[in-house]
Give the backbone structure.
Amino acid sequence: MSTTDEPQPTSERRVRPSGRDAKRAARAARAAASVPYITRALPRYEVLNEEGLTLIEGNADTILEEIGLIFRDDPEALEIWKAAGADLDGERVRFPRGLCRSIVQRTAPREFIQHARNPARSVRIGGDATVFAPAYGSPFIHNLDEGRRYARIEDFRNFVKLAYMANSLHHSGGTICEPVDLPVNKRHLDMVYSHVKYSDKAFMGSVTHPERAADSVEMAKIAFGGEALDPATGRPRTTLINLINVNSPLTYDATMLGALKVYARANQATIVTPFILSGAMSPVTVAGTAAQTLAEALAGLAFAQLVSPGAPVVCGSFASSLSMQSGAPTFGTPEPALVLYIMAALARRLGVPFRSGGSLCASKIPDAQAAFESAQTLLPTCLAGVNFVLHVAGWLEGGLAMGYEKFMMDTDQAGMMHTLLAGVDLSPNGQALDAIRQVGPGAHFLGCDHTQANFESAFYRSPLADNNSYEQWLEGGSLDMAQRANALWKKQLAEYVAPPLDPAIDEALLDFINRRKAAAPDSNV
Amino acid sequence: MSTTDEPQPTSERRVRPSGRDAKRAARAARAAASVPYITRALPRYEVLNEEGLTLIEGNADTILEEIGLIFRDDPEALEIWKAAGADLDGERVRFPRGLCRSIVQRTAPREFIQHARNPARSVRIGGDATVFAPAYGSPFIHNLDEGRRYARIEDFRNFVKLAYMANSLHHSGGTICEPVDLPVNKRHLDMVYSHVKYSDKAFMGSVTHPERAADSVEMAKIAFGGEALDPATGRPRTTLINLINVNSPLTYDATMLGALKVYARANQATIVTPFILSGAMSPVTVAGTAAQTLAEALAGLAFAQLVSPGAPVVCGSFASSLSMQSGAPTFGTPEPALVLYIMAALARRLGVPFRSGGSLCASKIPDAQAAFESAQTLLPTCLAGVNFVLHVAGWLEGGLAMGYEKFMMDTDQAGMMHTLLAGVDLSPNGQALDAIRQVGPGAHFLGCDHTQANFESAFYRSPLADNNSYEQWLEGGSLDMAQRANALWKKQLAEYVAPPLDPAIDEALLDFINRRKAAAPDSNV
């Protein structure tokens, strides 16, 4: 190949190794088949040293001590805090320095197993494990055929199916999109049922009302064949993980406290997440946002441990910045990435699993903006060592829309992260000195023994990237990545086969749902 | 703002701070104005520990000792190596363990200044400095209006102008695109002239023939008002940096050795870069590719120091993977990123500046694939601590096309990297405790003193991201990022104003070019 000018002409650069065909590629694809979750070998990236992290922790303690938090409309919560030694001033709760941290560290598990109904798909949350779940909570969907429209239960089922088929996703998620064709007070029943029926991966419960949380717990019991103790812990098996967002700044309301209490008392996992747009719900600075996030999370995590000592909890952080021009949230910018790195380190020091990140973007469509912003979120997520990653696939428009094409692109990127997090192979095979000896100067490595031996596992393979020549790409219709993704999600849905489900369990779930639906009129609050 | 479900409805999320207008935004944009180069405050990311890096270094020494390199068609090079203590076997040169490293470490500068004709724009290369330059070497251009076509000198001038206007680019680059409407043996004269005439940033010389390298040196002398010593070093002022690619595996040819010698003897900088598609020019593994890259770079860097002890050199690495299905190069995948992190650490241990990365992609168009792949290259580039980054802006199609829209998107991302590399502000203002005290629970930070005081510098601001509501975006024509970039490059070119150039220098340059063009017939080799 030629010499000094960097890009090489297509004809010289494109070299076609011999002896491989479609069957071989299919074998390779199977070899890269699903793992229940990622166990990282890659070191974590740290942006602050010990001194910097200690400073942020001290500031969080100052916020808890001086400013405190409001626990709104929940007298029981105030009683619990009073008994734990906090200072009460109406609904304002102030915490002696170190109180929340010591409560969390006394009983919260460093990591835990969330069971899936297929035991091979149970996920470990915490430590070196990383679990990828789809996006959560969009009222709209977007695809190239229809544009943007309100989501329906059919979309919800489609995304459960696509997540089930995606090797790079380990979790079925929760409110993947809002089925707005169903009443607000009953749609959680159909959502939980869809996760059980159309997937065998672990999933999330409802948090929009304590009663809906209780329904989720009941349905999980039915789906898992009754209540059972986890032999590893002697505690009720954890089968749900649930998203409890803080009303930042510094406020917990009765809805989320209610859902948190239901789940914690059932030994189900809660992700306590300050949801912060810096500039509106926190200061415009990274260090200020991190301190406030830690203070808010500490109060919620400690509260969960007071309610149910030993219940699995996850420290969460959702950080975005506000556009100072328009007031709109922005994504994929550097500041939230810095907050993420810091919060991941702080959660490790606290000793609990961490949730953050995903494939976030503000773009309305699966274009270059969506991709830039998503990559600028997902890569920090992985380098920082996030344990539970919501919003890995599908997120568009600040979370207002769940994109079909975006979902496929994001699962592709998530697959790539599996290879990255496996780190560098320093075995003799990884060092490959014999290959370099065999080939020597001026020859090529395509046919050498080492390349042949490692052919099937070498390099991450994207199902959506077009690496062909310009001429081949033209012949293929000059498609962009979104158009290729459009064909792929349709193909996947057409090929979907449901995992087996015991008919007795299915019947019991439907019976429960029917009884609950009959018990109250439809309502949209 | 509402509670437990993650995405918030647009109307609630969009908050419009008061007291700000277009003038204020314009002031803010000016405040974020250009720096001559980035001085990083963010820690570097390391994927291997001391033991792992030592292993790779040992393997590089084994390659140099046992296998050696070919120095092709350059008897002088062989004489130089013989005198330095290498073992010769025809054109094959083998190196006693540690020889190349000791030669480099004896005389190569750890960092150096490349002077720009505007002294305020001179760049520091090495240490904590990062310099961003445009893409290099494409025979084609791409834009939304014309699609893909061969590049012309007019395109070259356009990109020099766009790079001059881009605050996030510190360097004018070299062969930004190949002006194929000019003869191969003369186009370097027009390219160097364009860099001087249409920009005042530092630039690169020609490497396609030793004579063209000599022309570049002569033109730089004229442009800089004659030869001069750098007072900091007492050596001839370094005004050119030049890309010397290795013919991997393990081969240097006469063309690049010739150019390297011309530049090194004039104390101009050379970037010695193994250009490697793993699987073809190196083993399919990360550790094998890193060891071979280091061996190749060490031999070239040491050769430059033997030719001209103390001449500025940069250790380069261009690593991509081969698609094992099609034989095509791929970009933005995890393996080249891992090679990049390792090579950056190895160059630091060697004690020379490092060049790698950029905004690489295989996509033919500025779509989501282009963005994903570019982000997955540029972010590792910045986290790893690359000092000189070629290909930051414009790269499409594996470097075969220079994209106008892609150029604008990439400069936006490069701007974002400035904010990231500034790291976390831990000053009292950065900690923002008083802001949290002032606002307290349940209120918002939009109007607080701290937000007002930090308003203009808070958060990276993208000129291309659309963060508006869906409805606003529809009203604006439903443009994707590439379409917005299309409008932006046209606006920029329309507003371009050339930097001042002494008419006597301009005349002398044109006179030199005319004489050189008259001295030989046009040729396309």
Observations:
- Confidence is low (pLDDT under 50) at residues 9-32 of chain A.
- Residues 228 and 237 of chain A are 6 Å apart (CA to CA).
- Chain A touches chain B through 162 residues (CB under 8 Å).
- DSSP finds 19 helices and 21 strands in chain A.
